Amino acid sequence: MKQFFLKWGSLLLIVFSLTACSQNTNGITTVTLSGWQSNPTERHLIEQVLKDFEAKHPHIKIDFEIITDQYMDVIKTRLIGDAAPDVFYLEAFEAPLLMSYGVLEPLDSYITAEFDLADFEPSLLEAFRYKGQLYGLPKDFSTLALFYNKQFFSQANLKTPPKTWQQLRKYSKKLTVDLNGDRRKDRYGLGITPELARQYFLMKAFGGELINRKDYASFATKKSVKGLKKIVEQYQKDRTAAQPSDVGASSDSEMFGQGKAAMVVDGNWAIPYLKETFPNLEFATAEVPSINGKKSTMAYTVAYVMNKKAKHKDAAWKLISYLTGKEGMQAWAKGGVVLPSRRSILSELGYIENPLYAPFIRGINYATIWQAGINLPTIRTHFNNQFLSALLGQQSLIKALQKAQKDANKEIQAADY
Q1: Same-domain check for residues 14 and 118
Q2: Domain count of the chain?
Q3: Of 22, 235, 248, 387, which one is least surrounded by beta carbons within 10 A?
Q4: Is 117 among the domain residues?
Q5: Which PROSITE patterns does the UniProt record give (predicted)?
Q6: 14 vs 71, which has greater pLDDT?
């Protein structure tokens, strides 16, 4: 990925955009906007907000495009070819690379006191700062929390959700059901997703890190093993945890909804999915049980960013400021798939008082943002491949981490030359 921009870096600095924001002879300025679609409801809401924006700004037309596949690859290719949109979605996960290569417009000079930047969750803003400048305004966020089946808890005489990871492990044993006496259970206590984006907070709880100061992978440590070992032991030794593929499900949300797992650690995006797909399911949420005596979870966020080569930057800023302003954010943040990044909107829409959403909101105060330097996409791929191998017992956890780290750094080093 890094060489992707190095090869064309000089071109990006000298060629002006020919296909970005354009102005017609009738005085209408067109701003191009690209994003993805989490679900049809979200698309409907954002399209309605864009119509409201155009009504308030009759001289600006929004050309909105949904990129359905390989979103970031498409964006990067268009940046190289000077065909990138004026405004686009950018995950915190991918942000360091684009910020460091100077293809985004710094937003600090556009922001006024009236915009009320202090209303945003501070940690979300920090995910889009680079060398003291702000390059993106977070439109939403999601964290992880514990989902638990209230009916199964009642059957096991469990009255409250687990507070610590040790309790969660005990609960999982009580909630696992094996009617046939074979290796595969009829119901598991915990459903897991064996991916770095879901497991990083376990490593962090014991002081583990993903990268060193030079952005090379450095996660193959005893500290990281301590955190990840909890999942591996529960899967291999206790046999009270399962991944979706073990029970024929496509996601942890689905295995939870089907009753194949009594608990899962999942994002708030699962709430509307569970309500719509499994309307008879009785479930509740709680904060992720503490690990190593600390509260811990993950946070994921997406921002609106401006193309450095947007031709009509004032119009592009008006769009960004409306979408991330109080009026625009309140209008589209009603679906519950993601949470608005402004504290005032979280309150006004009732999320803070809603018992299903409250644990996710509390989690943002201590969450680990899913971000770690420009090489995280490479690191994630190698980690996921080897961690799954360790989970299945094909190699030890420490050997899996060492191999993943070695292979990731080999690829990163090759990209540096």
Answers
A1: yes
A2: 2
A3: 248
A4: yes
A5: PROKAR_LIPOPROTEIN (PS51257)
A6: 71
CB 275 within 8 A of CB 114: no
What's the rounded Cα separation, in Å, for the pair 416 and 406?
Answer: 15
- Residues 345 and 390 occupy one common structural domain: no
Looking at the domain assignment, is residue 260 inside a domain? no
Cβ(178)–Cβ(342) below 8 Å: no
Give the three-class secondary structure for 17.
Answer: coil
Nearest 5°: phi and psi at 370? -75, 85
Read off the pLDDT of each residue in 10-20 and give the average, rounded to a whole number.
Answer: 40
- Do residues 401 and 344 both lie within one domain? no
Is residue 66 in some structural domain?
yes
Q: To the nearest whole percent, how much of the chain has pLDDT over 70?
A: 93
Instruction: Name the one residue in this structure whose structure tokens are 């899996």.
Output: 400
- Residue 347 contacts by C-beta under 8 Å, 6 or more apart in sequence? none
pLDDT tens-digit series, residues 20-70: 445 555 789 999 999 998 777 778 888 999 999 999 999 999 999 999 999
CA 410 to each of CA 7, 24, 302: distance values in angstroms, whole numbers, following the listed order: 19, 49, 29
In a domain, 272, yes or no: no
Which tokens in the block code for residue 179?
A: 């009617």
Same domain, 132 and 6: yes
Specify the CATH number for the domain of residue 320: 3.40.190.10
- Going by the DSSP 8-state scheme, the letter that residue 106 receives in this structure is -
Q: Identify any residues that bridge with 22 across adjacent strands, giving them in sequence order.
A: 30
The contacts found for 44-52 with CB under 8 angstroms, 24 or more apart, are: 45/331, 45/332, 45/334, 45/335, 46/332, 48/331, 48/332, 49/322, 49/323, 49/328, 49/331, 49/332, 52/328, 52/331
| CA–CA distance, 120 with 107 (Å, rounded to integer) | 15
**pLDDT per position as a tens digit, 250-280:** 999 999 999 999 999 999 999 999 999 999 9
Confidence of residue 337 (pLDDT cuts 50, 70, 90): confident
Number of Cβ within 10 Å of residue 143's Cβ equals 26
Shared domain check, 392 and 339: no
- Out of 330, 346, 369, pick the residue that ends a domain: 369
Structural domain for 33, as ranges? 2-142+299-369
Residue 360 near residue 268 (C-beta atoms within 8 A): yes
Q: Is residue 69 classed exposed, middle or buried when 0-12, 13-18 and 19+ CB atoms within 10 A define those classes?
A: exposed
Average pLDDT, rounded, for the chain: 92
The CA distance from 92 to 115, in Å, is 22
79 in the same domain as 16: yes
Residue 294: DSSP 8-state = B
Residue 253 token pair: 């949300």
Q: Quote the CA–CA distance of 285 and 318 in Å, as a whole number.
A: 38
